[in-house]
Design brief:
Length: 176
Amino acid sequence: MVPVLPDMKPAAAPPTDTGAQRRSTAGARAPRPADDVDTRYLQSLLGYNARRAALAVIGVFIPRMAAYGLRPVDFSILSVIRHNGGITSKQLCTALNLLPPNLVGKIGALQKRGLVERRPHPTDGRALGLHLTERGQMLAAQAELAAFELENEVASPLTPAERKTLIKLLQKVYEA
C-alpha cells in the first residue's frame, strides 16, 4: 500500500471499460490529456522538483551560453578560475565535483581557445595554477552577466527573499 501524504487525496480508481470506452489495442488505453495526468506523488519528491527546476533553467542557459561557445561545465570552470586565480586542478575538481580525467580535456580545450593558461603555483612546486587569460577574463565576465540576466528571468516568479531561501535550501541538500 502506498502512503498518502497529508495534503494529498488518493487518486480515483481508474474508470472501468464500458461499451463506449473500447480499447484500440489489447491492454492499452486511449491517451489521457496531459491535464488529466496525476503527478501528485512525483510532485511530492525533492528530486523530481529539483530536476524539473534544473531543466527549466538549463533550457535557457544552454542556448545563451552557446553564444559564448560554452557548455554549462565550461562556464562553471571559467567562473571558478575567474574568482580563484591560481586554483589548482585538484581544487577545481573538488569545488565542481568533477573527476580529474574529465577536467584534463576541458582545461585543454579552454587552453586551445586561449582562455586559460597554466602557471607554476607560487607555494607548491609540483602544482600548476590555473589562470584566465585576458581573453578568458572578458569572456567569463560577459558569460557571467548573461547568466545573471537569465537567472533573473527564470526566477521572476520568486521574490528576492524566496530566491535566496531556495538557493540556501538546495545548497543544504547537496552539501549534506
